[in-house]
Amino acid sequence: MRFLPVVAALVMTATSALSAEAPVRHIVSFKFKAEATPADIQKIERGFAELKSKISEVQSIEWGTNISPEDRAKGFTHMWVVTFADMAALKAYIVHPDHVAFVTLLKPSLDDVFVFDFQPKP
């Protein structure tokens, strides 16, 4: 039982170090309204992809549409993976005027959104 406090201290130290400066992956998935037209969706696709060139905190953006044969997407069709250097960069992105403008463009066509942020574990 003596090692338990040591293990707890190590875990806390590792978690603190990871969350302070580790890269962050921002996962976003969209489910569009039935009335969203292909033109609306293409405009949203372009708008999201353009955030990489507009917001310096964005290190990379990858995206695609669902191709899974498992039929478990629950109506979500688009997935985005945005990488940031750290949590501070993600927070700056969220309030950046170009991101806020994109969200305004997106909302009328959006039925649902799923957002999940994580720091990759080694």
Please give a structural write-up.
The protein has a single domain, classed as 2-Layer Sandwich (Alpha-Beta Plaits), CATH 3.30.70.100. The chain has 4 helices and 4 strands. The chain has a 4-stranded antiparallel sheet. The longest helix is centred in the first third of the chain and has 19 residues. The N terminus is likely disordered.
**Fold-level CATH name:** Alpha-Beta Plaits
Strand ordering within the main sheet: 2-3-1-4
Beta content comes to 25-35%
What is the C-level CATH assignment? Alpha Beta
CATH architecture: 2-Layer Sandwich
Query: Kindly, what is the distance between the CA atoms of the first and last residues, rounded to a whole number of angstroms?
Result: 28 Å
What count of structural domains? Answer: 1
Q: Helicity level, as a percent range?
A: 40-55%
Low-confidence stretches: 3-18
Biggest sheet record: 4 strands, antiparallel
Secondary structure tally: strands: 4
Mean of residue pLDDT values: 89
Global Rg: 18 Å
Q: List the total number of helices.
A: 4
Which shape, going by the Cα principal axes?
globular
Q: What is the N-to-C order of secondary-structure elements (H for helix, E for strand)? A: HEHEEHHE
